[in-house]
Write a structure and sequence with these properties.
497 residues; mainly alpha; Rossmann fold; 3 domains
């Protein structure tokens, strides 16, 4: 019996349980994204007007990625409804580029994953987040982003004062890492957009051209022969040297700054020479006292983060939300709990997690929650997890899973119909029985896998000529028993999931 026959009989146009991953689940994206929530949704999401941090631990398939996608969607909706009080969203989910560059910066003897990640620090996380945020902001200002978030991204660059324009250009010089344009070309486009004129800061470059012209004019004003004799004396060359000295000195300072920045930006690639040239666009007074990522410490990063916040606030983005997910996926971590801990733990710092105007949404594997019981007092004093809206386990009740399954069935319904999940089963299968069975499945992914397997087994039990429109309770129980046994073996590491 074809499964589509069964689904069509129950007024469905698609199988609600085909996909298991929220990233590729079209039923979820099109129908459930704004309507089907975990019971803890409100605590996790919080209030976009005043972003707060949430830390969620959940096993594979519990819906962490689905929650991240829902938060992203609802923050975009908030932005469209509140154009003067928007939230700037940064998705910190692809860690491979940052870890790969970090790996390249360390000596070969320290490149084993365990030694490598033991060197990862809070400022490395801050640099990665700043790079994502600044690159995203510049993309959108220059109209080079195709992200959905652009629909709510309209800015008036005239709202930025001179100091904020300088801050954004400094941030872009250090952190903008886009492949859509050349590094210098993109920065100069941004400078022109901001109307940040730099010709007044190039007086020393003008001297490099003016002084030789003046010197040559003077020595040849006495005649050709007198000029040639003067060229055999040291004074023309001394004068020209004095003329180019300010430029040479400033170039040396800029390139030294660029070298130090490149050394201490361990998570993102830096073009030292190009960065040095960009720093020449700023006067000494504009750079003096400004924070730069040129030291291994967090204080400068917090200052740079505040600079970004100031720019965004003037652009009507007073809040920032940073979504953290898929921490088990980088190839250097490869799902190992101890490596996940080494990578994540520096981020668990109350000073950052409770930074005013910023909310972190950390969606973490359940394996990491076990490490909390082994930590000492110093860790908890630094992390202050009691202040972070922590959910130790993203659990689902049988009732909640039943609601999820029912919502997906309705989402795939033929227009004008309202099918019910309960109608798939013979009379002896009560809602209470389904709820009890779903409770044993624990998480949405197991529910979807089980329901898909159940549909397959039901279809295989009948022919197209003699179909059956109700799933027998005996088949339900046997498929459930086999699935739970298989899943237990997966949990124990005896077979692949």
């Amino acid at each position: 019996m074809n499964i589509q026959q069964f689904l069509a009989h129950h007024s469905l146009i698609a199988n609600p349980f085909v996909e298991e991953d929220a990233q590729t689940d079209q039923v979820f994206k099109e129908y459930c994204l704004r309507e089907t929530f975990h019971p803890a949704w409100e605590k996790i999401y919080g209030n976009p007007v005043d972003p707060s941090t949430s830390i969620v631990f959940g096993e594979k398939g519990s819906g962490k990625t689905a929650i991240r996608l829902q938060m992203f969607e609802h923050l975009l909706l908030h932005n469209s409804e509140h154009p003067s009080n928007r939230v700037f969203v940064v998705e910190y989910v692809d860690f491979n580029p940052f870890l790969d560059h970090f790996w390249e910066t360390l000596p070969s003897r320290r490149r084993k994953p365990d030694r490598l990640l033991s060197e990862w620090r809070l400022w490395d996380h801050a640099d990665a987040i700043l790079s994502l945020g600044v690159t995203q902001l510049v993309d959108r200002i220059l109209g080079q982003s195709s992200a959905k978030a652009d629909e709510s991204f309209h800015v008036d660059l005239k709202s930025l004062d001179h100091h904020q324009a300088r801050d954004l250009l400094l941030l872009a010089a250090c952190y903008d890492r886009s492949t859509k344009d050349t590094y210098k070309g993109r920065w100069n486009r941004l400078r022109r957009k901001l109307r940040f004129h730099t010709w007044k800061r190039r007086w020393d470059l003008a001297l490099c051209f003016l002084v030789p012209v003046i010197v040559l004019t003077i020595i040849f004003s006495q005649g050709w022969e007198a000029g040639l004799r003067a060229l055999n004396t040291p004074w023309p060359y001394v004068a020209i040297g004095i003329g180019v000295l300010p430029r040479t000195f400033r170039m040396a300072k800029s390139y030294l700054k660029a070298r130090k920045i490149a050394k201490h930006l361990r998570t993102i690639p830096t073009q030292r020479s190009a960065l040095g040239q960009l720093l020449l666009h700023f006067s000494a007074s504009e750079l003096d006292g400004q924070p730069l990522p040129n030291k291994d410490r967090t204080d400068d990063r917090f200052e740079l983060l505040r600079k970004l916040q100031g720019v965004l606030q003037s652009l009507q983005f007073p809040g920032i939300v940073i979504l953290v997910d898929r921490i088990d996926e980088p190839h250097l971590i490869n799902g190992r709990a101890d490596l996940m801990k080494a990578f994540l733990w520096p981020l668990l710092d109350n000073k950052l997690l409770k930074h005013p105007g910023i909310g972190f949404k950390l969606l973490l594997p359940i394996e990491l929650e076990d490490f909390l019981d082994r930590e000492e007092r110093d860790f908890f004093q630094r992390a202050r997890l009691d202040k972070q809206n922590m959910i130790p386990s993203l659990e689902w009740t049988g009732e909640a899973l039943y609601d999820v399954a029912s919502a997906r069935v309705r989402a795939c319904a033929r227009e004008g119909t309202e099918p019910m999940l309960r109608d798939w089963f013979e009379e002896g299968m009560s809602e209470a029985r389904l709820v009890k069975a779903f409770r044993d499945l624990r998480v949405p992914r197991h529910l979807f896998k089980f329901m898909y397997r159940l549909l397959i087994e039901h279809g295989n039990a009948y022919t197209d000529e003699s179909p059956a429109w109700k799933i027998r309770s005996e088949l339900f129980d046997s498929v459930l028993a086999v699935y739970l046994r298989d899943q237990e073996q997966v949990d124990r590491g005896l077979r692949a999931g």
